[in-house]
Design goal:
Number of domains: 2
Shape: elongated
CATH superfamily of the largest domain: Protein of unknown function (DUF541), domain 2
CATH topology of the largest domain: Alpha-Beta Plaits
CATH architecture of the largest domain: 2-Layer Sandwich
Number of helices: 4
Length: 282
């Protein structure tokens, strides 16, 4: 009798223990599922709010404006080159020539602020001698000297060359040919890069922009009339410019007082503006 009672008590304890574990596991699974559902719901809500169709609709229209303006400035470069045995002699000779060129253009109405030095280059001039002995002096300058290079074929400094260049702005176009002629007579050995431009292009750019905006708005009204769209407001504007350079006259002119400078045509400068307008659609 006592043995049977003990066995029944043990079986009852094991059954209760099994049931308790099952309940806890069930509750844990339910909790995990609930958390997963909440997470997925949050993700779906975020993605739904981020969908493109929920953003305001937009429409972009573009237009181009073009204006023509007459240049009011001519730019031309004058160059002078001098060579001498000594570097200082090359500098002195070149300065005399360039000062004469600058004086000549100033006498024809060019202001100081419209003359700019753009190049000043002093370089040695080398000579290559095949065979024989070449007499050289200090710093490699050719000079009668007892010191010789006994090697057949020697490169030596035979002098110095100085190249100087200035950029001149001409505001009175009636003086262009006279300035070109007088500068070469005064000593300019190179004349080139003649081009025409506008000193203050902002006015022309503003006019081109205004035309581009008008054309963009005309295009918008056409689209609205054909599609029935309803525009809310302008939300963005972007623009770009493209200026076409003038024809350029370049070349060297001989220093001959009897020669005449070529006839120069200024033409017109084209200024383009491209505008894109972005509107919000209701």
């Amino acid at each position: 009798m006592e043995t049977n009672i003990n066995a029944n008590i043990g079986t009852s304890l094991e059954t209760n223990h099994t049931l308790d574990l099952s309940d806890k596991l069930y509750k844990v699974l339910i909790g995990i599922i609930a958390v997963a559902i909440l997470f997925l719901a949050g993700e779906l809500m975020y993605q739904f709010k981020s969908l493109p169709q929920n953003l305001p609709h937009e429409i972009m229209v573009s237009g181009e404006g073009k204006v023509y303006i007459k240049p009011d400035i001519a730019k031309v470069s004058f160059g002078v080159t001098s060579q001498a045995l000594k570097s200082q002699d090359a500098v002195n000779q070149n300065n005399l020539k360039m000062n004469a060129v600058i004086k000549a253009v100033k006498e024809l109405g060019v202001a100081d602020q419209d003359i700019q030095t753009t190049l000043y280059n002093l370089t040695p001039v080398y000579s290559y001698v095949k065979g024989g002995n070449v007499a050289v002096g200090r710093a490699g300058e050719v000079a009668p000297s007892p010191m010789y290079y006994p090697y057949p074929g020697t490169q030596v400094i035979s002098g110095y060359s100085l190249e100087q260049q200035i950029l001149v702005k001409i505001r009175n176009f009636d003086n262009i040919n006279a300035i070109l002629d007088k500068a070469t007579v005064a000593g300019a050995t190179n004349v080139g890069q003649l081009q025409f431009t506008v000193d203050n292009p902002e006015k022309a750019q503003s006019q081109a922009r205004a035309l581009a905006i008008v054309k963009a708005k005309e295009k918008l009204q056409s689209i609205i009339g054909q599609s029935g769209l309803r525009i809310s407001k302008l939300i963005n504007i972007s623009e770009g410019y493209s200026n076409y350079p003038m024809p350029m006259y370049a070349g060297a002119m001989a220093k001959d007082s009897a020669s005449s400078a070529p006839e120069i045509q200024t033409g017109q400068q084209e200024v383009n503006s491209s505008v894109t307008l972005t509107y919000q659609v209701k």
